[in-house]
Amino acid sequence: MKKHRWTVQRQQQFLEYLAETGNVSRSLKLVGTSSARIYTLRNNDPVFRQAWDEAEEAAADRLEQEAWRRAVEGFDEPVVSAGKLVHDENGNAVMVRRYSDVLLIRLLAAHRPRKFDRRVAAAAATPGGLGVDIRAMLLAKLAQLAQHIEAEAPPLLEHEDLERAAAETASVTTPPTEDA
Fold first, then answer.
1. Pairing relationship of beta strands 75-78 and 80-81 according to DSSP bridges
2. Is the pTM of the predicted complex or chain greater than 0.90?
3. pLDDT (tens digit per residue) in 126-148
4. Residues 96 and 117: beta-carbon distance below 8 Å
5. Beta carbons of 33 and 11 less than 8 angstroms apart
6. Most CB within 10 Å of its CB: which of 19, 79, 93, 102?
């Protein structure tokens, strides 16, 4: 494989692809370089690292714009019935406008987390705005349930009681014979 010279122009091309796609692996393939080379450059060159971060922000902005478009403006989707595309009397595919409620909720949670993100709202509702230690809460509840069971549960059935219970269950589930 021919080794390409890593020029400023190729660095810029990588950053442009990264800003467009948001995908490092794809950008590497489009430029024709290795991940080792690009990550070494990122780790050793603060200017390149900043440009990389800006390219990723630009890609994230593009994704957010597309999410907003799909959530608010909607998108056309062809109507399919019985596995076939539905056409109007002119032969054009019938389209229906769809909106993404999931994307809308995610955008609201991102832009107004105190109001729309359940995790943030739950943390804000606790004293001091700190999150609750769920693990400690669950362990305490389990200990409480164990004490309750020990205090109120009857002793374990003896061996004969198990046999009697099994016989009673069998008689209830066995249909009566004609002799009875």
1. unpaired
2. no
3. 555 555 567 777 778 888 877 77
4. no
5. no
6. 19
